[in-house]
Amino acid sequence: MDDRGARRPDAGMTQPATLAPVLSGLRVLEIGHFVAAPFCTRLLADLGADVVKIEPRGGDPVRQWGEMIDGRSLWWSMHGRNKRSVTVDLKSDKGRALILRLVAECDVVVENFRPGQLRKMGLGSEVLRGVRPDLIVAHVSGYGQDGPGANRAAFGVIGEAIGGLRYLTNQAPGTADLPPVRVGVSIGDSIAGLYAAFGVMAALWQRDRAGGDGRARTIDVALTESVLSMMEGMLPEYGALGKIKQPAGGGIATAAPTNAYPTADGQWVLIAANSEPLFAKLMTLVGHGELIGAPGYASNPERVANVDTLDQLIGAWTRTLSAGELVARLDASDIPNSKAYTAADCAADPQYRARGMVREVPDKHFGTVLQAGMVPHVPESPGTVRWAGPDLGEHTDEVLGELLGLAPAEIDALKQEGVL
Q1: Could you tell me the CA-to-CA distances from 135 to 131, 138, 140, 195 in Å, in that order?
Q2: How would you classify residue 12: left for phi > 0, otherwise alpha for psi between -120 and 50, otherwise beta?
Q3: Cα(158)–Cα(165) distance, rounded to whole angstroms?
Q4: Contacts (Cβ under 8 Å, ≥6 apart) of 308
Q5: Domains of the chain by range and CATH?
Q6: Measuring CA to CA, which of 113, 204, 275, 379 is 20 to 30 A from 96?
Q7: How far, in Å, CA of 102 to CA of 399, rounded?
Q8: Tens digit of pLDDT for each residue in 136-147?
Q9: Whole-Å CA distances, 15 to 7, 19, 253
Q10: Is the pTM of the predicted complex or chain greater than 0.90?
Q11: What is the rounded distance in angstroms from the CA atom of residue 165 to the CA atom of residue 81?
């Protein structure tokens, strides 16, 4: 299935993109649900991997998430894209036997059950590697596969809390009595999925490269650890100084001026002018050139110490301009800035459109669906949206026939038994 703009070379490329997607030939079995493991495999599928997604007969719960049209999730159209959906009852002996036959045809298995759950089903790593000795197995869980907390229940929001992020997504202490806000998306799950995809590719590199060792490897990704790893200097500062990093609202505790500022038409514009040349440009625009090099404002540490006064001064100026006028003036002075984008702003952004990062994707149920493109861009061999999120079990017959050589009558019999 073609998608618009998928094979557009980046600006400056002089040769057409003719190479196959970079992960063509890689086959991944996903035994995942919700967000983390499926996000990992979607990244791999976007770059060309053949991802076979195993679902129970009721389907991945995410099929029922978000806004729906005629009972179908718009989110699923993107979340499940480029994957082949196969329904298998993992609780049945015949279902587990089919999984093992599929594993023998795959390079990687990605799963996000609670630790030990696959082993209880008779599908532990040692069993999987009995049919594919060099199999890469990626586990994504709340707390990791071992340790005293390994069996605790967790979702992405819990990983964000234990990783230190939820404490920081708040206004500065003393300025609000509401709970710390959620980032707004399943960021903990997605970060864990990214790390899992990175780990899978690192393991494949060592296994399959020229001179590689050909050995199996296990990737163990925890939601909590994935978030914690993003917390910049939080731990070093606490370890050395006993300092507990605090929420900073819309600003950055280590740089100023950098914040979101109000406009005359009720919007917010982010301005990042924390270097000396940028601060000088901004103060010239604001009409406070006397602060350039002045005591209290001559360096970034000085400006951080006076950030409240500085933000009030800048905010008083931004309130006199509409968002469009403010962005135009900042752009003219080459000061980093942006409106706080809504979905509509993202959809209309010419840079996103030019690079295929916002694209119309054909979907057999919706006609077309607006989706995000692929990251990373690989101009010489770009990934494509080959198809939108599939129907439940849409590829069961295709996969079992193609990979396992099952005849239609055999597949029908398994369906009648409730195995598929």
Answers
A1: 9, 10, 16, 18
A2: left
A3: 10
A4: none
A5: 27-231+348-417 (3.40.50.10540), 258-262+268-339 (3.30.1540.10)
A6: 204
A7: 9
A8: 999 999 999 999
A9: 12, 11, 45
A10: yes
A11: 29
